[in-house]
Specification:
The complex is a heterodimer of chains A (116) and B (113).
Chain A lengths: L3 E2 L4 E5 L4 E3 L2 E2 L6 E8 L6 E7 L7 E2 L2 E6 L4 E6 L8 E9 L8 E2 L3 E6 L1
Parallel strand pairs in A: 2-12
Antiparallel strand pairs in A: 1-4, 3-9, 5-6, 5-10, 7-8, 8-9, 10-11, 10-12
Chain B lengths: L4 E3 L2 E4 L5 E6 L4 E9 L5 E8 L2 E5 L7 E4 L6 E5 L8 E9 L6 E2 L3 E5 L1
Parallel strand pairs in B: 2-11
Antiparallel strand pairs in B: 1-3, 3-8, 4-5, 4-9, 5-6, 7-8, 9-10, 9-11
The chains are: A mainly beta (116), B mainly beta (113).
Chain lengths: 116, 113
């Protein structure tokens, strides 16, 4: 089974609208962390947000928030008030284990296009 | 704000040649990683490095690959005899002690012809 599943290969969203990018995960480890990265066309991987499995509150970073539903094993990224510069590939990733420095396993990504 | 840097940004090499990809992690990072991304595909873990030794490696990281941190700042990935299928973007990443974030460098695009 895939550890990280991103079911939306592509999304088109009108500028200024909110957008939700889906991510589900599969792990039996009680300690894990979930990450979202943005990859613009230039290729770099930009860290956006992190949620630990024991965090009680959903993570937020500016316009980004992570809708963490532990029982459903989902960690959706919400971008509020989308901007043209948000057009990029978005990857969900997970680390598993207690130390916090374990490797990341990535999903296949969602290509987000913001329409003016 | 400090950043992870990688050189070169793009390398073209012939099949069978050795390549060395270089990374300068952020100074307070203790954990280092190499990942690769074949064009149009997802990012895959290659190897993690801590305290001057490999802590984990993937199936991809076979005998053709090696890593080292020769001088306490640079972190290198060597591919001894490149194959066509090694063509990919290679990312170096680092993480500080006590935190879960991993920060990626801009990547080196390796093209094997």
């Amino acid at each position: 089974a895939q550890k990280i599943t991103q079911t939306q290969p592509g999304m088109f969203v009108q500028e200024k609208e909110a957008v939700t990018l889906d991510c589900t995960y599969d792990t039996s480890d009680p300690s894990y962390g979930l990450f979202w990265y943005k990859q613009p066309s230039s290729g770099e991987m930009i860290f956006l947000i992190y949620q630990g499995s024991y965090d009680q509150q959903n993570a937020t970073e500016g316009r980004y928030s992570l809708n963490f539903q532990k029982a459903r094993k989902s960690a959706n990224l919400v971008i509020s008030a989308s901007q043209l510069g948000d057009s990029a590939m978005y990857f969900c990733a997970m680390r598993e284990g207690w130390f916090g420095n374990e490797k990341l396993t990535f999903g296949t990504g969602t290509r987000l296009t913001i329409i003016p | 704000e400090p950043e992870v840097t990688q050189t070169p940004s793009h390398q073209v090499t012939q099949m069978g040649q050795e390549v060395i990809l270089r990374c300068v992690p952020i100074s307070n990072h203790l954990y280092f990683y190499w990942y690769r991304q074949i064009l149009g595909q997802k990012v895959e873990f290659l190897v993690s490095f801590y305290n001057n030794e490999i802590s984990e490696k993937s199936e991809i990281f076979d005998d053709q690959f090696s890593v080292e941190r020769p001088d306490g700042s640079n972190f290198t990935l060597k591919i001894r005899s490149t194959k066509l299928e090694d063509s990919a973007m290679y990312f170096c990443a680092g993480g500080p002690a006590g935190k879960d974030e991993q920060y990626f460098g801009p990547g080196t695009r390796l093209t094997v012809t």
